[in-house]
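Hello again,

I reread your note about wanting to compare the complex against the isolated chains. To keep things tidy I'm splitting this into two emails, and this first one only covers the full assembly. Below are the input lines as submitted, including protein chains and any nucleic acid or small-molecule components. They are followed by the predicted structure of everything together. The single-chain runs will come separately.
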Amino acid sequence: MFRKKLFREIKGNFGQFFTIFAMIFLAIMAFSGISAFSDGLKFSSVEFYEKNNLQDLWLYGENFTEDELEKIKALDNVADVERYLSMQGSVDLENAEDSEVENIPTELNFLDTEDEEKNISSLYLRDGEDYSPDKDGVWIGYYFAKARDIQVGDELTFYVEGYKFKEVVRGIVSSPDHVYTVSDPTVIFQDAADFGWAYLSMNEFPKEYLYDEILKEDDIVEYLDSADDIKKAVDTYKAMGADIDFIKKQLDIDEAVDLETALDKASLVKDKRADISDKEAFIKAVDPDFDIEECFVYPNAIVDVAGVAPNPYIKSSELDEFENKLKTVKNELYELDDTLISAITGRDVWQSYASLKAESEEGDTYSGMFTILFVFIAGLSVVTTMSRFVKKQRVQIGTLKALGFRNRRVTIHYIAYGFWVSVIAAILGLAVGAPLLGQPFLNMELSMFDLPEAHKVILSKNYILAAAIIIVITIITYYSIKAILKESAAQTLRLEVPHIKIKAKEGGKGISAKLPFSVKWNLRDIFRSKSRSIMAIVGIMGSTLLIVMAFGMQDSLNHYMEWEFDKIQAYKYKLTLSENVSDDRLDELFDTYGDATSQTVAIEYKDSEGDIVASTITVNDSDGYLRVSDHDTNTYDISDGIPGNTDGDINKAGALFATEKLIKENGFSLGDKVKWRIMGEDDWYETRIAAAYRDPQSQQFSMTRAAFEDLGEEYVCDTIYTNDDLSNLTDSDIDGVSTISSIESLKEQMNVMLEMISSMIILLIAISAILGFIIIYNMGILALTEKMYQFATLKVLGFKFKKLALIYTQQNLWLTIVGIIFGLPLGYEFTDCMFKYAIGDNYDFFANIDLSTYLIAIIGTLIIMFVTSIALSRNLKKIDMVASLKANE
Amino acid sequence: MNKVSLRNVSKVYNVGEKEYRALDHVDLDIEEGKLVVILGPSGAGKSTLLNLIGGMDVPTEGEVIVNGENITGYSENKLSDFRAESVGFIFQFYNILPSLTVKENVELINEIVKNPLDATKALEDVGLLEHINKFPNQLSGGEQQRVSIARAIAKNPALLLCDEPTGALDSQTGVMILKILKKQTTKERGNNTVIIVTHNALIADIADVVIRVKNGKIKSVEENANPANIDEVQW
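Full-complex prediction:
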């Protein structure tokens, strides 16, 4: 019987119960949906890293020899080590639109020929055949291949340092250390079509490059320089009838040397007419024991530390133990004899790993914020709806009690309203969240992250949250009935005496006496129905807040783009120089493109706890092309310092510019000394932080060229900045330049990311509109139900519909205005929090919201209010005066 | 002169698939300046009759003529004007607005009527001058009903319709209310017509005309040549 009553009452008060349902449903759907994708990213990545054995440490040196690898492998906690050579190269590919050949930057990783298998960061084969060092060909990154329609069997033309070589695509692969790759650290979102990566055996390395390097060695240069003299001497001896062995002896040349070939090819080499076979023939003639494999250089190594890396997203003692193990291995590696390791880094600084981790953790902030907001509003809805519902049921409760039903039975019945509505909402929210929100978000993320077998994950926390919400709603429901149950049956059966806090003597006097009727009536009604009014204000506040957030995020990102790409990077093109560019060529480049330059120096510094942290110093000699920003995003040429945030001479003794966030997170202050050293060097510098600047996407150090050189260090620029129009040039067009990046292309890449964010924004707007509509509708229904007999009385007295609608809408308007007043600043704060906590540690974003967004939020909320109020006020037209007045009786 | 005339009026409600005939082909004439009591048991159709006369409801068939005007075909807005200008309502449970003070409840009329009586004067007439700044829930039931009467008479309506005006009151307070209502029919007050719907047969003794209603039909219309003194009425 009670079940029937429950069902019918819910049906009869559908609007109010639907609000409770909608808020709980939205809260759980948002939480479980966002968690499903962020936990999905976390767990899928952990599974991929574990299955394909992502390295724990990256080692950088000059050349890791086999002996060194053996020593490293011999360390207690090292399970395995592999070496390779990673170089920035490029590949020629046809553009799908106009079929023109484009030269696309590509990271080429040449693997040790001795490793039969790639065991660390093993390749996940998407198509083609497994990797082997003995196979020729190349294994291309999956997303790049997909974006460029590269198929297994295609022949591609690659370039490394200007050397061209062709390879057949043997496989299309994913790799745990290449889940996310960027061509340049300044790129935030990499279009997969614009940057590729590939693995191939060192045997495929362009031999000519190696031959040319050998030809630059001192003894060979010396030999080439003396080749003419030797040739003359040989000719003289030959004319005298001497045989070649005699001649070699006379000229003190090793008898194994193929002198004739050597001299024959030397002239071609000297005259730069030698092709690769001439160079090989010459080198082999000079050094008969020449083995090209001995020329292979492996400056990169990766280490698999013993044991499986624990899940970094779950705090555990194993995680701490593993961190300690990593520290121990790092220290042991640094202390190894005869092994030149210039730097060791862990997973956290590896861009692929760090970006995915930051992106996964971003979801936690979103889900937390959405959930708090919706649960809060759901709680308020329950408080008001249930207490009003219980008040309406007062006589029924009294009747049930009078009939002999125990309090417990009545309590259970009324608790059932909140309980079942929240149970149904929770179940539906859980069921719908993952497929409706989680999957699309995961798909969106997977357009950036090459994560095979990625899947949604629904953790027990979703069920715990759902259960907690049901319990909270049930408790709130219980408290809304508790007071009535305390009364005796007779007391409950009597009509409730309304509480009034307005003193009789004050009523209708003073200013209020002069107010128009509708104002007076609405004002008093708001204060008499405090909980309903507060709920309405909070709901509207939430709606306004979401609109501000939605548009504010876009505004802030636009401002960020302006800050980063117009104010800080105040140039049109950036030329990244090749590693071995000669001084003469550099001078030519300066003449052509100007001498605004910078050098990025990889360093290690000691943080406040004395731990060594990898970072970089940008030595800035860019004449204001690469600018430094103050806290308020005003930018300056580094030589001018940061006004108001500079301490001492910025051009002396390695004076550092440190980003504000780096300073804060390390507990440094302006003027503090920081211990740092250039990667690979033993000596530590201890220099002062002379200025604090702000950088939105990289927390690091900068320095003037003068300060750097004052330390006795040589400034070797690696980048040239220019405003020349280089739109018609590709990377391979300028000798000595490895990549040409235009600010416009960086902006375009960023726009791609913004498009992704806008889908999130559309969702936010949709939710805010639904939220606003539900809250205002609920508020309106409550107000109407509660005041129906008053409106009926007014109608009986002769008030017309328009007048009644005006009175009704006026109150909604006031509450909406108050909600907006609170919602606007809160919207700013929430957006700011989102940027501060949701985005990775390396970023320093903040909310920067345009006036137009606030106007949109105001107008949007008002439109929702007016539309809902007008729709609801139609009920006033339909008021059945007789029925309403009788119902009141 | 007839103040109110009903011609062949029926009111049918549809309850689910069934028809409920609240009034069944009723013909009735009520003269000006009379205190009319409509008597009948619950469900007889007396409140329906009152609602139709007051323009709060429309008949299913027939005509309702008030002040010589056929209000049957009036639009919603015209009915509002009619109620505002010609009719004063008094209900069993007062129906005054809780968020307005006593005086403000009466002054509410100023929003819809062009020349209403002064609110203070109306309240003085019903003996509530000392309570004018109180809120309704600070008044007794009788006092609240007097506010309701003051609000009705402030409109200076030619027709005062009262639905069980003493139903929620004790005998003594009820008598006080009836006195005020009776006063409205005097020449001094403009010969207003007062129609009281009640199931309390004792009130019938004070009426000029008693109309008995049963099962949606008028059973009798009796003229009372010698209405009883109100002070003698008790229940």
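For quick reference: Chain B touches chain A through 40 residues (CB under 8 Å).

B.
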